[in-house]
Design goal:
This protein is of the alpha/beta class. The chain has ten helices and six strands. The protein has a six-stranded parallel β-sheet with strand order 2-1-3-4-5-6, sandwiched between helices.
Length: about 270
């Protein structure tokens, strides 16, 4: 329970697929903290996932939206404003998809058509969401937008493939739009660079178990869980972080600033 940290606040959660999803866990914690929600995902994800169960648990309507379609996003914000009888206080962008990863293509031989779709869905979708909200004046003053990213935007993880480029673009959109939205309406925009987390989407990356095990050994505090990330999201949606914006915030148990650990040394010396 988050002690009503979000009491009176209203938000849109993108990307909850199943109980493993960080978006799913975040929706539950936001609801427990007193927020009212609207849930959204792509129509195909709504058919594949279990979002209606989450909707029941959080007393939230589900509005399908293709995040590459401006008309869909406009309809989503219209429905959200109608449901909330006003604007939105926070948004979680938990969206990522790589066709090249799905098709097993290595980074050196990516299909550029697939790549364009990956960048559009995984990164420019945040720009589209913010642009739609901007045009409709849909986010309230001192609102908060959070998008989920990964440290592969800064460091090479070979099997993370083109998603590394997508995350780098996502973080750039966060900084650039964060500036404009901050000046205009005190809306803050940040990314959370989360530990590798065993979600349905994350588990599809080649060598994912190796990612998780290595990060666990390299992190002084260990890997941050999906539930812990959800708690961090709640804090960023709250008024306790009103002056944090345009940041890429590492939530990874210290992995991002650790050169080597004794556990890794011992593993290499075996």
């Amino acid at each position: 329970m988050q002690n009503n940290l979000l009491a009176g606040k209203k938000g849109i959660i993108f990307g909850a697929l199943d109980e493993k999803s960080i978006a799913w866990k975040t929706a539950l914690q936001c609801h427990a903290a007193g927020a009212k929600l609207v849930l959204s995902n792509a129509p195909v994800a709504l058919r594949m996932g279990e979002i209606n169960k989450l909707a029941d648990a959080t007393e939230a309507p589900v509005v399908g939206a293709d995040v590459t379609n401006m008309d869909d996003l406009k309809k989503l914000f219209e429905e959200a404003q109608k449901h909330f009888n006003g604007g939105v206080d926070f948004i979680l962008h938990s969206i990522g998809m790589s066709l090249n990863v799905r098709k097993g293509k290595s980074y050196t031989e990516i299909d550029y058509g697939f790549n364009q779709k990956t960048l559009d869905i995984s990164a420019m979708s945040l720009h589209r969401v913010l642009r739609t909200a901007w045009d409709m004046d849909a986010i309230n003053e001192w609102g908060s937008v959070v998008a989920l990213t990964y440290i592969a935007a800064q460091r090479v993880f070979p099997d993370y493939n083109e998603m590394a480029d997508a995350k780098a673009l996502l973080e750039s959109v966060t900084r650039s739009f964060g500036y404009h939205y901050g000046v205009r309406k005190k809306v803050r925009v940040n990314t959370i660079s989360q530990s590798p987390t065993r979600t349905t989407a994350g588990s599809g990356v080649k060598g994912f178990d190796g990612f998780v095990n290595y990060a666990e050994k390299m992190s002084p505090l260990g890997n941050a869980s999906g539930d812990a990330c959800a708690s961090y999201c709640v804090s960023l949606f709250s008024d306790l972080t009103k002056y944090v914006t345009m940041q890429n915030l590492f939530h990874d148990g210290g992995f991002s600033f650790t050169g080597v650990t004794q556990a890794v040394i011992e593993q290499m010396e075996k």
